[in-house]
Amino acid sequence: MPPLPVIAIVIPVFNEEAVLPTLFARLSAIFGAQPALCAWRTVLVDDGSRDRSAALIRDQVAADPRFELVELSRNFGFQAALAAGLAYARQADAIVTMDADLQDPPEVIPQLIAAWRAGAEIVRATRRTRTETGLRRLGFNVFHGVFGRLSDFPMEPNSGTFGLIGHDAIEAFHQFPERHRFFPGLRAWIGFPTTDVLYDREERAAGQPQQTLRRLVRYALDGLFSFSHLPLRMLTYTGVFVAFMGFAAAVFYAARRILNIETAPTGYTTLVTIVLFLGGVQLIGIGVIGEYLGRVYDEVKQRPLYVVKRRPGGPR
Ligand code: UDP
Ligand code: MG
User: Fold this and answer.
1) Ligand nearest to the CA of residue 210, numbered in listed order
2) Rounded distance between C-alpha atoms, residue 221 and residue 223, angstroms
3) What is the pTM for the complete model shown?
4) Which of the ligands is closest to the CA of residue 16?
5) What is the CATH number of domain 6-228+304-315?
6) Does ligand 1 come within 6 angstroms of the Cβ of 103?
């Protein structure tokens, strides 16, 4: 019998003490029920939790060697924590990426593995339903609407981080030198045969969403700016358009002067409107350029994505 494939489950954790015991139990139950499925390990990345999450994981690691803890030195954010997990689970045959809060039901993992074994290098878990409401939902809809139009590599709107990536795709991930990472976007970018496994997204098992709306907006902007130059191009178009209008207006008024047609004497409102409009366009332009420039600066600094504090239970 060929050896079982090694599946690593990478889970970023930030202040999830309320859900961790259930998460551990459900993971163990799934793989316990199907021992012939795979050899598995779980890499929990503690992203600087301020509650008992790290302590709970440490206990679990001591009790069950299939659980590992990568403890970051502070809160680096979800994408960085995910990158840390991917790095530490690199040798696995495939990596399952999921949230700790059980919104991504671990019961779907066997289906992900089955799809991978059927030949897909990237398996996206795709929601049949969305549980977000109100502002968050509106935000997701707007983002995916805009992103789908702008990006050269559109993402499946109903899949997030949850999914599986095979070994070749993992290696591809490690070739990204960039600091601003947006996992679903990169996953779409690297290519490979991809399939979707449908599932129903659940409510958070307990606790509050750890990603503030502000952070989600930041990810959305990261997604846009790092996958599209269209905002810059739009600036050029706007510039050309405004310049053309200005030129046309100049010709128009000059002609009236020359032909001695009476010109309106005041024009104060027009002037103010034009000045404000142009000022606004220029400021937006500087802002958009700044978004790209800031990102360039971050990349040039080449700072590490995360700093690991301590890692009990894992190979050094
Ligand atoms: N998370 C993290 N670092 C952070 C914020 C969140 O590692 O700074 C983890 C969190 O513990 C969870 C996952 O990222 O496992 C998704 O977070 P959350 O459920 O708050 O996000 P949402 O479901 O609203 O996208
Ligand atoms: Mg969540």
Assistant:
1) 1
2) 5
3) 0.75
4) 1
5) 3.90.550.10
6) yes
